[in-house]
Amino acid sequence: MLDHIGIGVSDVKRSRAFYEDALKPLGLGIEMMPTPDMLKAGYEGYGFGESGKPYFWVGPGEVTKIHIAFAAPTRSHVDAFYAAAIAAGGRDNGPPGIRAHYHPNYYGAFVFDPDGNNVEAVCHQPE
Q1: Which domain holds residue 42?
Q2: Is 103 helix (H, G, I), strand (E, B) or coil?
Q3: How many structural domains comprise the chain?
Q4: Taking the model in full, what pTM does it have?
């Protein structure tokens, strides 16, 4: 089981703005913003999560394309994530809908973030 994950981004401020908007419909926000005196000098990163627990980090570093899926409690949350991510500058990689090839209740939406990472919100619950 994972505790947290961090990705390198090319523009920290741009990625912060994108993820703040895109993850808000899923109830996620910035839970931690380390300052240079907390970590190595010059680091500027953001920990997104909920209830005081950051588990998705963006910070400066080598950009390696990844796919990350965030759990959504309902299909309407998936829809809201997709709309918010597109409005925040994300590029479509698959609108909200059933992906029956995974399983009959797999409802997901996919966007590319500013660095081209494939970001998904998925709900596994029936309607």
Answers
A1: 5-123
A2: coil
A3: 1
A4: 0.91
